[in-house]
Write a structure and sequence with these properties.
This protein is of the alpha+beta class. The chain has six helices and six strands; from the N terminus they run E-E-H-E-E-H-E-H-H-H-E-H. It folds into two domains: about 80 residues, Rossmann fold (3-Layer(aba) Sandwich); about 70 residues, no CATH class. The strands form two sheets. The chain has a four-stranded antiparallel beta sheet with strand order 2-1-3-4. The protein starts with 8 loop residues before the first strand and ends with a helix. The relative contact order is 0.13.
Length: about 170
């Protein structure tokens, strides 16, 4: 018997606006589990806007349609609730956060996702394992978040975040 898997992401007739300007006009997209899709288009075509709407950015209002993630309607959920379900946005130009180490950022983020403080010893073991899997050194995680990072280091930091936070 061929069992059909529910798609990971379904965007169904999505309309959205910022202030009083409609910016998305009936977007439809289905992303099956296990597939990777890329959105491409010229500047101003709505790629970043769609990402912001999918993640629940408060400046954008969904006026019609729905967003299903793992079969759950997330259209009305707050950004942190979407994050807890596993939705994550990797930025083209990640922000530098002086004074906050990658380790502290990850531990705080993981605690927020779990709804409780993460024990230091277990957290360090997890991070060390993930760093090792990614061929990275612990010294990288002791640096301030994205501060002075090259473009490649910023991407590696995002991969580390994805690996540790498991969105």
């Amino acid at each position: 018997m061929n069992e059909r898997k529910e798609p990971l992401l379904v965007i169904d007739g999505l309309h959205a606006q910022v202030e009083s300007k409609t910016i998305l006009h009936g977007v439809d997209l289905v992303v099956p589990r296990g597939e990777v899709h890329a959105l491409m288009g010229p500047n101003g075509s709505g790629k970043s806007t769609l990402a912001a709407v999918l993640l629940g950015h408060p400046s954008f209002k969904v006026t019609a349609g729905r967003i299903l993630f793992k079969g759950q309607d997330v259209t009305a959920l707050a950004p942190d609730e979407r994050a807890r379900l596993g939705m994550f946005l990797a930025f083209q130009y990640p922000v530098e956060v002086p004074g906050v180490s990658v380790l502290n950022f990850l531990r705080t983020s993981l605690g927020a996702l779990k709804g409780q403080e993460v024990p230091v010893r277990a957290f360090r073991e997890t991070v060390q394992q993930k760093l090792s899997q990614l061929g990275m050194d612990l010294s990288f995680a002791r640096r301030n978040l994205n501060e002075g990072f090259s473009g490649g280091e910023k991407k590696r930091c995002e991969v580390l975040q994805l690996s540790v936070l498991e969105p």
